[in-house]
């Protein structure tokens, strides 16, 4: 079983407003991410927010830990609920490829250019916990290295929506 996790705990500082609520073709980024993961996962959660179109989890061990805090919350939840893995994406990812699970293959794996998008074994929760409690660099790429995740290259990069200009650039493209 795979748990989907939309990592949505960022401050949206470069965006200027809550980017999770920004819209593409009349749909919020958060609802697009939840709906996309719902097509591949048995259940979807949103981390780092109190309200969302799916059940929410607070970042672990606390807010302000970046995407790793959201992933840690999802991995802990996955372990508690008997899920084998977590498929993660950021709330600010543009449309994901229809064949993303096939591209990623078995956990652990993540996209080389956007490691927030990945498939992580629930059993990696203790390793992520160790990283977050350390003074080591807290990054998705560092976590991927720690657990031996495959870095998957894809032909078409996925847009990362950090500014209103980024949103405007992809707003006219068809959604997956």
Q: Spatial order of the strands in the main sheet?
A: 5-4-1-6-8-7-9
* Approximate shape: globular
Q: In total, how many beta strands?
A: 9
Give the overall average pLDDT: 93
> How many helices does DSSP assign?
6
Uncertain parts? none
Task: Give the domain tally.
Answer: 1
Description:
The chain is of the alpha/beta class. The protein has one domain (2-170): Spore Coat Polysaccharide Biosynthesis Protein SpsA, Chain A. 31% of the residues lie in helices and 19% in strands. It has six helices and nine strands, in the order βββαββαβαββααβα. The protein has helices spanning 29-38, 67-81, 100-104, 125-133, 140-146, 164-171, and strands at 2-7, 23-24, 27-28, 43-47, 56-57, 85-90, 109-111, 118-121, 150-152. A seven-stranded mixed β-sheet has the order 5-4-1-6-8-7-9, sandwiched between helices. Strand 2 and strand 3 (27-28) form a beta hairpin. Helix 2 packs antiparallel against helix 4 (125-133). The protein is globular and about 40 Å long. InterPro entries: MobA-like_NTP_Trfase, Molybde_CF_guanTrfase, Nucleotide-diphossugar_trans. Pfam families: NTP_transf_3. Keywords: Cytoplasm, GTP-binding, Magnesium, Metal-binding, Molybdenum cofactor biosynthesis, Nucleotide-binding, Nucleotidyltransferase, Transferase. Residues 4-139 form the MobA-like NTP transferase domain.
């Amino acid at each position: 079983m795979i748990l989907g996790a939309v990592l949505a705990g960022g401050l949206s500082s470069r965006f200027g407003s809550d980017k999770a609520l920004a819209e593409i073709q009349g749909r919020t980024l958060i609802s697009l991410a939840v709906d996309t993961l719902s097509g591949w996962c048995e259940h979807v959660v949103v981390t780092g927010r109190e309200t969302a179109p799916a059940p929410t989890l607070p970042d672990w061990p606390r807010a302000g830990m970046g995407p790793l805090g959201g992933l840690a919350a999802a991995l802990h939840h996955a372990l508690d609920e008997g899920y084998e893995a977590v498929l993660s994406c950021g709330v600010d990812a543009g449309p994901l490829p229809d064949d993303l699970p096939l591209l990623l293959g078995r956990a652990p794996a993540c996209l080389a250019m956007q490691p927030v998008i990945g498939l992580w074994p629930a059993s990696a929760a203790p390793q992520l916990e160790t990283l977050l409690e350390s003074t080591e660099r807290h990054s998705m790429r560092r976590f991927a290295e720690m657990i031996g995740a495959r870095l998957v290259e894809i032909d078409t990069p996925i847009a990362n929506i950090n500014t209103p200009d980024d949103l405007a650039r992809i707003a006219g493209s068809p959604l997956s």
